[in-house]
Amino acid sequence: MRQRNTIHACLKAASAMAAALLFSTTLQAQESQFPERDVQYIIPFGPGGESDISARLQQKYFQQITGNQLIIQYMAGGGGAVGWSQLNEMDGDGYTIMGTNLPHIILQPMQQGAGYQTEDIKNFIFFHYSPDALLVTNDSPYKTLDDFIAAAKKTPGAVTVSGSGTYSANDIANQRFEALADITTTYIPFKGTGASVAALLGDQVQAEWGYTTTAANHSDKMRPLAVATDERHPLFPDVPTFKELGYDMTGGAYRGIAVPRSTPDDVTRELSEIFSDINANPEFRKSMEALGFVLIDEDVDQVEDFLAEQQRQYQRVAERMDAGQ
Amino acid sequence: METLGFMLAALSPFNLLLAVAGVAAGIIIGSLPGLSATMAVAVLVPVTFGMPTESALILLGAIYTGAIYGGSYAAILVNTPGTPSAIATTFDGYPMARRGDGDLAVTLSTLSSVIGGLVGGLALFCLAPLLALVALKFGPVEYFWLAIFGLTLISSLSEGSTLKGFIGAGIGLLLSTVGVAVVGGDTRYTFGSQFLLGGVETISALIGLYCIPVLIELVATPSEHLKPPEASRGVRFREGVTLMFKGKWNALRSAIIGTIVAILPGAGGSIASLVSYSEARRASPRSEQFGKGEPDGIIATETANNATVGGGFIPTFVLGIPGTPPDAVILGALLVQGFRTGPEMFTTNASVTYTFMGGLLVATVLMLPIGLLIGRYAFKSIVSVPKAILVPTIAFMTVIGTYAIRNNPFDVVVMVVLGVAGWLLARWGIKPSPIVLGLILGPIAEQGFVQGYLMGNATGSVAGVFFGRPLSLGIIALTVLFALYPLWSARRKRTHGEVVAHEQST
User: Fold this and answer.
1) B391 in a structural domain
2) Which CATH class for the A2-12+37-129+252-322 domain?
3) Do A195 and B319 touch (CB under 8 A)?
4) Which one of A321, B87, B235, B454 is separated from B333 by 20 to 30 angstroms, measured CA to CA?
5) Confidence class of residue B502 from pLDDT cuts 50, 70 and 90?
6) What pTM was estimated for this model as a whole?
7) Cβ contact, residue pair A166, B183, below 8 Å
8) Total domains, chain B
9) What gap in Å lies between CA B324 and CA B27, rounded to an integer?
């Protein structure tokens, strides 16, 4: 059945293209009917990660809303940089979109040789985030966040914390929290969340900077000490937020979508509306929240302010990191 | 009893059909250089969304296991491992094909893959929760030593001088540093090119280093690629079974090694097949035949790498930590379906889990008839197709395959450059295997070292972290043993020879 759908969609796409060649002028007049064929959704990471899972969930509802398919492609490399640095060279017709991630697109250009600037990327929506969470194993001696802080204060640097990558969301979360709680820990970067989880579960480290999504996936073996959301997460009603405990920290790994810069504004707006609609679907919300994500709706009108605010925050942390080195 | 019922559900017509289709598709994809198991699984994930979870898993598992086996065709017939776990299969598979025994090699690989797959699948079925604990015992330091162990193995294993083996591994290590470092985040050796940020992709390097030299040789020499068999003689099944029976301990040992190594996330098939290959060579009375077309070499590597399929699912299901890249994709597909890994998989979701395990075993058994059938055609077509068609076809595949991995045109450039460099280096005695293994193991070693160093700083004793843990000491001891063994056996042979000479003279 599905295959027939794909064939059907292919035929439709082919006829749409033929029509576009013949009647390109009439087509321009009908631009409000966007999209008329399948849309390529490039994920600048490998398959299987959270960006991929999110895109897979959007895929189904995209088809419900538009009648066209969202075709997911992968373009992994350099923590996303390989994809983002090529985005603006792609066709700006709205049929090519690419997942974007924070803090990646802010932090990478601060390093040398990322191949793009944050401003180069034309984001049209940020739709959710994986909130930061400080995780420990179920039998950890740290029962509360205070226990963790006390241990880190007693012997600075002796408490080890795993996380995914350097200059990553986890690394930043650790830096931010160290500053807020005035403690020093040893952050140990791993390749990907899987390896970071394995280090925690194998007692190689005492805690892990991960996300609510990590805690949700491994709820039988680990628990969050605190989560970086505004309100308590519905999956973890007993876990306090950092804010409640007096540490002004919300955020995590945000996911958005961008188009090549040459994409017309009205098409970009259509795309933003489609993905806002997906975000509004109750069934979609439920499956996203069950995985531990928190949905946000920074659409095409708000995305610029949102990014500017995020940029300010990360700038501060980055300055602190540079000063510390 | 209930478990058995769940497993039998794998035999429903629909599930059986998926297993057949999955294995066949997997074998074909795996046999084409560049089209990897990960890609095959990722492409099919959306197709599985409309299916019941257990059927989706069976299809994905069947493709995966088929692809790992299919990787041996290219290794044997074109000297190009279709997947990294088939690297060691080229050692003896290609020499066998050169001397006209390609059909026998393919049959052996089929039998071995089935046996390895069954052992790995049964381990997943019986011992998963227990074996998952082993995975957690491996910390950064253990991974560091394991990578060093792997590098020692490859350097001493590959044909030619050990010193040149180490030089090759060093070149691979250097290549592995290109791009953005995982630990530390610095950008290294990209020369300002954004395309190099992602580093040298392993599969592209694999294709370049193995395939391009073969193509150059094919064009440069007038003789045919492989010697065609004198007469049509089927798949030489009986001969294969006899050899297999003779090598039964080798197969069992390799399957167990494969299962255990696969449990370690990230280490995977390439190390598993190397370790079992070197063990097979060490234990064999014909050890000097290894690398020249010894059937036991194929048995060792192919049982080991198919055992990694079942083994890799162990951390994936029990811990939610993917054992191999294809496992990561399958795990993602499970999450999208609202399915949790962990203890639930063996309690509330036991029906799905055990049906899948049953399906994986069924798919493994199906590899025998399907594999022999496809293998026969693969062999026939490679042997009978004239060079003028074979060379451009393979060349075309290398380019398409390399590009498809990350949709990055620059990877194709890297592939060709490495290919030509690899051809030159091979003339000079530096073979591709140590280079590729250096590339794969370099990041594991580097990350393990830096993480271990950071952990050591935190506890105040770096030496204690690296040398104070029983598991690391065990791996270090093995490394020393394997590094010194060739020297020791050479000396023994020499003294033995002297004794014989002495006796003869008296």
Assistant:
1) yes
2) alpha beta
3) no
4) B87
5) low
6) 0.85
7) yes
8) 1
9) 18
